[in-house]
Amino acid sequence: xxxxxxxxxxxxxxxxxxxxxxxxxxxxxxxxxxxxxxxxxxxxxxxxxxxxxxxxxxxxxxxxxxxxxxxxxxxxxxxxxxxxxxxxxxxxxxxxxxxxxxxxxxxxxxxxxxxxxxxxxxxxxxxxxxxxxxxxxxxxxxxxxxxxxxxxxxxxx
Length: 157
Description:
The chain contains five helices and five strands; from the N terminus they run H-H-H-H-H-E-E-E-E-E. It has 157 residues and is of the alpha+beta class. The chain has helices at residues 17-38, 44-60, 63-68, 72-82, 86-89; strands at residues 108-114, 117-122, 126-132, 135-146, 149-156. Helices cover 38% and strands 25% of the residues. Strand 3 (126-132) and strand 4 form a beta hairpin. The longest helix has 22 residues, at 17-38. It is globular. The relative contact order is 0.14.
């Protein structure tokens, strides 16, 4: 006959079988949550940093660094449209990113992230970004809103 205090417990561990089953389910579920969180990718602060780095590169006249932050198709489209290499077009005083750095520095006012896309609003510009690999790249810049229509962007793929 069993004693009342040991009913339903395993002789080997002293833990009830139902609790062992729960632990076997909860541990893998917890690891799955951690794995998904680790794969979340870049966030709003990373998007803000990319836009700030783009502005810093444009202000410094470092066209190569600025173009490296653009989606390659956007950099190619900019070069084709301007008739100059991306590095020259992006740093031109009257170029498509002149408004981004009109105040001499980028002031990020708002960042909106939706999955693998982001919109960064600065004091002088609106930019769109997408996740590429494990980082944000600028897919469109020099964008102005149009009523009931998509943004009109100076730089885009």
